[in-house]
User: Which sequence fits this backbone?
């Protein structure tokens, strides 16, 4: 999973306030769509939401970062993905898991394997789940409270959303056989759509191909969550944007949306870099991440000075 950490970071940054929109090429509808660059903070967020709604990770990433950072990410992609060589065990494990997920009768076999454990898990979760959720909720709230990156208003918004998420988790029966079967069906459907036959195939993906696969995974995750009543697409469809403040290359956009049947609002801080708008906190996090990578690299040792050179 560590090999996909940079991809995960980019996707998270995109979701945090980056965006893009696409325009179909009328001359060749089958050709890749041209990217239209948003010109206002609101347009950037709106286009980001559309890309997330469409599971278009390629579009998100292509406009998620200023050009130099994006170029570096693409240039380092294959090197990072192949930093550690594949072993025969890696290949066997990958092939075994994909075979189980994509077999014609995968859904039936997976449920048959899980079904005997559902009643036992359901009995245990009835006692343990509320406590575990409460503990996780408390830990998350403590983290939010101590955050130095969030304003008081942002902390309140995050806590409200956390409370709603906890309530959803406490009232959802994750072991319901009907829901389990539906979730398994979505997982198997996603695995088949990935169409990856081997670990070597996965390692050989180009940056662009990996982004397309990430879009398939994003769609699969949303489908599984929807089975359990958490409909991300409905929340995205409910978003409304309005400018809150602007000062040169900095702006704030008010974002309102509905999730878990309740209204929420947030403020997105945006910055303009080289004429384009990006999420401020996301850009700051990315640059911090890059600085950590640079500082973690061992310094190049200086060339030894020969005795003759010192004469």
Assistant:
């Amino acid at each position: 999973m560590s090999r996909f950490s940079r991809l995960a970071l980019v996707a998270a940054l995109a979701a945090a306030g980056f965006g893009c929109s696409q325009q179909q090429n009328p001359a060749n509808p089958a050709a890749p769509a041209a990217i239209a660059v948003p010109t206002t903070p609101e347009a950037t967020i709106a286009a980001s939401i559309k890309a997330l709604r469409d599971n278009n990770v390629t579009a998100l990433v292509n406009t998620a970062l200023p050009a130099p950072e994006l170029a570096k990410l693409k240039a380092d992609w294959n090197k990072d993905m192949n930093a550690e060589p594949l072993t025969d065990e890696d290949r066997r494990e990958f092939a075994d898991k994909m075979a189980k997920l994509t077999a014609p009768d995968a859904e039936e076999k997976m449920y048959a394997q899980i079904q005997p454990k559902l009643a036992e898990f359901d009995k245990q979760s009835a006692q343990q789940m509320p406590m575990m959720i409460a503990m996780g909720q408390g830990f998350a709230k403590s983290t939010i409270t101590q955050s130095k990156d969030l304003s008081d208003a942002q902390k309140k918004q995050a806590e409200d959303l956390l409370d709603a998420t906890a309530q959803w988790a406490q009232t959802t029966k994750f072991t319901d056989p009907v829901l389990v079967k539906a979730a398994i069906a979505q997982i198997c459907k996603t695995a088949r759509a990935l169409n990856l036959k081997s670990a070597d195939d996965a390692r050989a993906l180009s940056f662009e191909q990996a982004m397309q696969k990430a879009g398939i995974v994003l769609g699969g995750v949303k489908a599984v969550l929807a089975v359990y009543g958490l409909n991300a697409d409905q929340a995205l469809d409910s978003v409304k944007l309005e400018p809150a403040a602007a000062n040169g290359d900095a702006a704030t956009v008010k974002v309102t949306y509905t999730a878990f049947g309740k209204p929420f609002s947030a403020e997105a801080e945006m910055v303009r870099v080289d004429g384009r708008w990006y999420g401020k906190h996301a850009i700051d996090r990315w640059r911090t991440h890059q600085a950590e990578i640079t500082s973690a690299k061992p310094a190049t040792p200086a060339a030894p000075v020969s005795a003759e050179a010192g004469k």
User: Anything to note?
Assistant: The longest strand covers residues 262-273. The beta strands are 21-23, 34-36, 240-247, 250-259, 262-273, 276-279. Residues 2-296 form one domain.
